[in-house]
Design a protein that fits this description.
By secondary structure, the chain is an alpha/beta fold. The protein has two domains: 60 residues, no CATH class; 242 residues, Alpha-Beta Barrel (TIM Barrel). Helices cover 50% and strands 14% of the residues. Strands 1-2-3-4-5-6-7-8 form an eight-stranded parallel β-barrel, surrounded by seven helices. Helix 1 runs antiparallel to helix 11, helix 4 runs parallel beside helix 5 and helix 8 packs parallel to helix 9. It is an enzyme of class 1 (oxidoreductase).
Length: 304
């Protein structure tokens, strides 16, 4: 049943008609638990609150259904405005973005043009941009773009997914450019031809790439709500004398808040991934697919 539900939500997340319907009716049925509103102002307010609780943030202006050059340019401008708003408010937050939201599926050169403008703005404000990894079809081109950008910029990072077979080799190649990586399990529906189908194998690979990246001396963001992964990381850094300044834990807005607070109390850096914007549907569907408990939260909201 759980697998069926996961497949349904992952399929819905890619449905353009469902996305348009979600935009029409706004953040209802529990989505606001995971999305910090539809405006920059709402997002900045959320960042301020999280900062007050000892957490840093990465903001993501959601946009996954971009089909025209005009939409891609507008999405890039929203990223730039987000960086400007972060600077103006004096809050502590990076920026995360998806390459498809700024034109990758339209033209690679359009995407690169938009991305350089965003990175130049981030550099102006002494800020950092994280490129989110998307589905397998976008994996290689995302890595290629990142490696090209690292020749020009030192304020850009990438996401690597533990559930892909190719990840170990990707880590080896990315170490050549001293990549700043966010390590995740992976949230997209992928074929067993390219991704581990069993959670046990994904977890083992996750631990392996955490170990590899930390021992390589690179900055590592461990993005997980899995307490076993977090405990493994804490034990590993202690045993290998890895300073807290070399890594951080990352979690999604609205999920495992008590665990976030506990890690802050223990002296670890915790960064909360805070999405906002009107194009929230695909992100929300993946959150439901990841954790069945999120589905019941939504169901309860239907009757309020």
């Amino acid at each position: 049943m759980e697998v069926l539900m996961r497949n349904v939500f992952q399929t819905l997340g890619k449905n353009r008609s469902a996305n348009q319907l979600a935009k029409k009716y706004g953040l209802r049925f529990g989505a606001s638990r995971f999305i910090a509103g539809e405006t920059i102002e709402a997002a900045i307010h959320t960042v301020q609150t999280l900062n007050e609780h000892g957490k840093v943030v990465t903001l993501d202006h959601l946009g996954e259904f971009v089909f025209t050059e005009e939409e891609a340019i507008e999405s890039a401008l929203m990223c730039i405005r987000t960086l400007e708003a972060i600077a103006e408010a004096g809050v502590t937050s990076n920026l995360s973005l998806k390459l498809t939201s700024i034109g990758l599926d339209i033209r690679k050169d359009l995407c690169m043009q938009n991305l350089r403008k965003i990175l130049d703005t981030a550099k102006l404000y002494d800020n950092f941009v994280r490129i989110d990894m998307e589905d397998y079809a976008h994996c290689q081109v995302s890595i290629d773009i990142y490696e090209e950008l690292r020749k020009e910029y030192d304020n850009v990072g990438l996401v690597i997914q533990a559930y892909l077979y190719r990840t170990e080799q990707d880590m080896h190649e990315l170490n050549k450019c001293r990549a700043n990586l966010r390590l995740v399990k992976g949230a997209y529906k992928e074929s067993p031809n390219v991704a581990f189908p069993d959670k046990k194998d994904v977890d083992e690979n996750f631990q392996s790439i955490i170990k590899t990246h930390l021992l390589n001396g690179n900055y590592t963001a461990i993005a997980s709500h899995d307490e076993q992964i977090i405990t493994y990381t804490k034990q590993f850094v202690k045993e290998n004398n890895i300073p807290n300044e070399q890594f951080e834990f990352q979690m999604l807005y609205g999920i495992c808040v008590e665990l976030q607070d506990q890690l802050v109390k223990e002296g670890y850096k915790v960064r909360v991934y805070v999405p906002y914007g009107i194009d929230w549907f695909g992100f929300f569907m993946r959150r439901l697919a990841e954790r069945p408990a999120n589905v019941w939260f939504v169901v309860k909201n239907l009757f309020k």
